[in-house]
Amino acid sequence: MIKYQGRKSNYDKYPATAVEGTCWQGWPEIVARLQEESNPSRRDGRYILVVECYQGVYHEELIRGLQQLKPGRLISTDSLFRPATEIEAMTDAMLTDDPLFGYRTVLSYANLLDPEKVRNCRQEIAAGKGFIIVYGHGAATVVEEPGLLVYADMARWEIQQRARRHEIAGLGVNNQSESASRHYKRGYFLDWIICDNLKKKLIPQVDYWLDIHIPDSPRMITRDTWQQALAATVRTPFRVVPFFDPAPWGGQWMKEVCGLDPSVANYGWCFDCVPEENSLYLDVSGCRFEMPANNLVFYKTRELLGEPVEARFGQDFPIRFDFLDTIGGGNLSLQVHPTMQYIRDTFGISYTQDESYYLLDATPGATVYLGLKEDAQPQAFLEALR
């Protein structure tokens, strides 16, 4: 392990965009604010609050918090989904039998929710009076014109941590006990696509954004604050919130350079800019608010990517930045990526992954292996490379 003579790490693990605004912290403040907004007496005796949420939230916590609003009726969309066995049969072809690879879904909540249950729910809401909360996955598709729309958001790295602890399930299925890799696969090829496609449509309509990454410590900001913060972020160099993970070949270098927990066996990965998985921190007048960094890609696509990149990649951020640490560990895994035609035909993904490495540090005798076929001709290789 390389020693840095006691040098203190200057790596910022908590970068944030500062913005002025109000951030309501904790359920008492959030409930008080939503009660001000949802007084039924001001709305002809009926008021509908819709709380849409991303996959991976703790439903019990959110429902407990919302019940403090004392609604006349709280409807959970969990009761509106098709049977889990039906959803599993519907999605099997996309998830495939392969332990890792699947096919990007074209499904939406309209496919997962039972049309008859949704129709009956809408009729009940139309006939009801007083204060009604409709909560859960796809709630905003059940009530298309709510009095107030709140979005409970969640970054994918936190979702992965909860899946590893078997605390959460996928959309409409009971898969808490599945392996972390299968959770990730269902999220990547199915659940997160469905959630993101709805979120993109809802961005102009959401009244309040809810950060529920820290259990029992929710934070809430208005649509204006959310939009102003992302507009400020895209106008300046910025960083997302990095996260770290061990690997079979992981090393010890990042522990010192990035100031990480020395008791962890190793760190192989630092995901320092993978917006679809990283978080973005906002410093809202001294209150830290966390959201998926992908929100910036969705809301400010052209400003962030530029028109030519947007034209090719749409609302996908096409570059990922990682630290890979093998110092004091093992050899980096062999990197193999499919051709464009193969990845499009096999996985429904529109671009492949090319790689470029910058070597930041090395121990004496370190080696980089370039793997070639045994009968490869060096001159032919060089010509192909040129």
Quick take:
This protein is α/β, with parallel strands linked by helices and 386 residues long. Helix content is 35%, strand content 16%.
Task: Explain the overall architecture.
The model has no long low-confidence stretch (mean pLDDT about 90). Helices cover about 35% and strands about 15% of the residues. Helix 7 runs antiparallel to helix 8. It has helices spanning about 25-35, 60-65, 85-95, 110, 115-125, 140, 155-165, 180-200, 225-235, 255, 295-300, 300-305, 305-315, 340-345, 380-385; strands at about 15-20, 25, 45-55, 75, 130-135, 150-155, 210, 220, 245, 270-275, 280-285, 285-290, 320-325. A 7-stranded mixed beta sheet has the order 2-8-7-6-3-5-4. A 3-stranded mixed beta sheet has the order 1-11-12. The chain has a 3-stranded antiparallel beta sheet with strand order 9-10-13, with no helix packed on it. It is globular and about 80 Å long. The protein is built from 15 helices and 13 strands. Strand 7 (about 210) and strand 8 (about 220) form a beta hairpin. By secondary structure, it is of the alpha/beta class.
Q: Structural class of the secondary structure composition?
A: alpha/beta
Work out the radius of gyration. Answer: 23 Å
Helical content class: 25-40%
Count of β-strands? 13
How does the overall form come out from the CA principal axes? globular
Instruction: Identify low-pLDDT runs.
Output: none
Largest sheet properties: 7 strands, mixed
Within the largest sheet, what's the order of strands? 2-8-7-6-3-5-4
Mean pLDDT: 92
Give the termini distance in whole angstroms. 37 Å
Please report the number of helical segments.
Answer: 15
Order of SSEs, N→C?
Answer: EEHEHEHHHEHEHHEEHEHEEEHHHEHH
